[in-house]
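Lab meeting, action items carried over

1. Structure of the three-component assembly. Owner: GW. Status: complete.
Input record:
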Amino acid sequence: MEKQYDVCIIGAGVVGNAVARELSRYHLRAAVVEKESDVSMGTSSRNSGVIHSGIHYKPGTVRAQLNVQGNAMMTDLCRELKVKIQYIGKLTIAQDEEDIQTLHSLKEQGEANGVPGLEILDAEQMQKIQPGVGGIKALLSPSTGIICPYGLAIGLAENAHANGVDFYLSHEVSHISSTGQGFRVKTVAGADLSCSVLVNAAGLYADRLCRMLGITEYSIYPCRGEYLILDKRLQGSLNVLVYPAPRKGGAGLGIHLTNTVDGNILIGPSNEYVDAADDYACTAQIIELLKKEGHELLPGLSTSDFIRNFSGLRPKQTPPEVKGFKDFVIESRKDVPGFINLVGIESPGLTCSPAIALMVRDMVAERLPLREKSSFVAERPGRVGFFHELPPNEQAELVEQNSDYGEIVCRCEQITKKEVLDAIQNPLGVKTVAAIKYRSRAMMGRCQGGFCLPRIVQILQKDFGYRPEDYILNSAGSRLFAGSVR
Amino acid sequence: MSKKEMTCIVCPNGCQLEASFENSGPGLQVTEITGHLCEKGPVWAEQELTHPVRTVISSVQVDGGDLPLVSVRTDAPVPRNMIFDVMKAIKAAKTTAPVAIGQVLIRQPAGTGCNIIATKNISTRIS
Amino acid sequence: MNTIKHDVVVIGGGPAGLAAAIAARKNGCKDVLLVERDKRLGGILNQCIHDGFGLHKFNEALTGPEYVQRFIDEFNSLGIDSMLSTIVLSVDGKRNLYVSSRKSLTRIEAGAVILSMGCRERTAGAISLPGTRPAGIYTAGAAQNFINLQNIMVGKKVVILGSGDIGMIMARRMTLEGAKVEAVFEILPYPSGLARNIQQCLHDYDIPLYLSTSVIEIHGKERVTGVTVAGIDKNFKPISGTERYVPCDTILLSVGLIPENELTRGAGIAIESRTSGAGVDDAFMTGVPGIFSCGNVLHVHDLVDHVSDEASLVGEYAVRYLDGEIKTPESYIRIEPRQGVRYVLPQKVSGMRDFTLSLRVTTPSRDRAVWVKDGDRKVARKKLIRLHPAEMIRINIKKEKLQGAKMLEVSVE
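Predicted assembly:
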């Protein structure tokens, strides 16, 4: 049966969700259609989690403007959505005279873009901020921050959902047609939606979506970045983000260390074009390279500190033979009226996401009347951070109030049963084991679920009636178990 | 005369034994065993050459217990070639909580002459 | 928040914690508390349903649950206090613990603390396995939990990476329950587990063991579909041309155990890189007075019998510490691993008491002797027919032999 919406957004990454959340302020019927079983399963969850300052982009580009704007929006947004963010600042390091020139031009460029507080530091000042850091000069950008990227994407989606946006998860788009007044969207799983405005936030698949509407000028080239995650033991060895000064011809920002808001350190990302938009494999060569870099960048790193590797894909518009960057495409198509097209939203897409949402809102307003809803609730329930981050007295109080707080399920990350239950009963209704992981952080610690997965399986069995065949990791074919022993 | 290298499984030492023997099948005669650290080695080796046996270990389904399975073992080693016959009996069995360590859950599975006993206490589930 | 006081607090109710608590009680301490995160005592032995435990201690081949039940029975008959379903959140250098249970968050002031938290398994991430991350990759211990405690079968067509004992035991276990175990692959040129397990868990069931071979890539987007394996050279690099594809739906990892020392670190106790456990003296006291360590959290053992023995001693030492008999001496005699020795434990001794030196060798060999020397002077010597990294070697050393010793050096000669 056909379901009618004013706006359909294809893709539940951070950009799609930010658009959905922004539009949920208005009297609009909106839906997000996503092929994966959960939001934030692609590029949005597989990145460094950095909120960039905006020094890297040419003044006047869409990226430069949205980056600085998005960065400034993050504080309020994260407060409303209960997402952890830390503006820890970044040092871009110069190793030689040529690099120093680069720092000066980055500073000029950043200032032209409106980046606040930029400062060139000498070696002594650098040491004060990050003892032991190499290099002769550095550019300090204090507005650079770190965030839990999937935390933001999930927060946006849940808040959008609470404000009336429908989410169609596990709904891969099979067919789109322009009807003159709007669009008809059909999915493999059988949804049949119509809408006046269609937003392409399909990330790595944005070019394919374009082609479904006869737009052929865009191509996405997936460019893989691999990472290693380090044990929390090393928490505190990095006070600030440290990046090498960019060199010519690089497609990313270079392999570097990034602290995460949850206390791990990431090494990466690498840069390697791949053929498939879902090729998330990690490779022996890159793992070895990252380990080598890690040992150089972080003395005191031991082999037992590597807890996991992962990779993400940048939706690049520039093919391997060209490399480099191309500006974001954010357009309301004249040839396909009502089609708002977002293409090539790679780094700093996470930072830009709330600003992109405003741009899209304005484009929607050209086609549909936007009336603010008095019922819109900007605040997401809950609190920022985890039980284990609270002082003992507050923990004790919570345990008194709810005994599920007293039961630690994930030993490494000290995640409580209450937090696991909240994740299982997530507002979007996602039933996968990965959904529990991304929402609660259980299974993300150094034992990678060796201890808590059996406990979570038990909770799902006892409290939610799961049978062995009901446990899936993240997609229908990713069953955890083969059945019962007896 | 034939020789055979064997790993003794009696204890964690896992001695590398060398057995010399004559004939094969039922008429096998052990002439010499070397490489053992204790006297259990030669006894085991002779048994292994003539009539190998193993303790079978698995689980039996429990109804109403604090765990869904009770771990079990044979109370004596069974002929190695009968392991899967014994497993068949174990897979078909079912018991009810409570279960106590040592409790016989299956008598003489597959005609082996041994019993399947519980190796864990299972209490009744409080729901 | 509630604060309580106890003389001896034992963290962990596995074989080490149980033996330590029992010994503390038997040595006259009436106020022993054991804190266990599970609802059942016994620790990992509850899922180790195979036999082979207790041959040294009881001269019987018991299964894990049977072995540990003997200790649980004794623990209960001595009326020792325990907090079950309670996890220790932190310990500090002044022996204050925060513990959490469904009832409350509690602060415990302990006279002495015994760390016996055990160890955890190395994961696919820890060994940075290349390839995809589909469902179907388990540590052998997690699979053991699902199969033996939760009645859940993890897979049907299995490849096992690493020849640790748990991996081999799970190969047999899964075969008995109807799975097809394709092979066990070991990156080292020699097996990591015991020889008897190669016989009774692999050979008995015609499961091949490939040495100097490893998984170099995992395949499968949703569930594991197979692995690429290859021969591995001396430098641990895959040998080109030896790659082959093995279809499977499950990968079990048995690639090593890591002592679980996060609480230890939090208490400011230095961790030895060789054992990944606390550095201890001959009373098993860590760098923080009054905090002791034993069992697999101190160093990974191959036999639970040795864990029980070690922990019994530690229970006694903790009580003697409370009685003022055990103090940090003015100076220690260091013990250093030399040629052919991977680690020694304890790493330093007071010289005031007899002790058992535990050690592991670096490579397999035959007909060698382990020497303990003080300069050129022989302190102890143990002749062994077979030396293997998988088998811990223990040497008893009398205090008389330590008089005037400056540093002990341990080597294989």
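2. GW to write a short summary for the group page. Key points so far: The domain at 1-120+258-328 of chain C is CATH 3.50.50.60 (FAD/NAD(P)-binding domain). Chain C has a mean pLDDT of 96.
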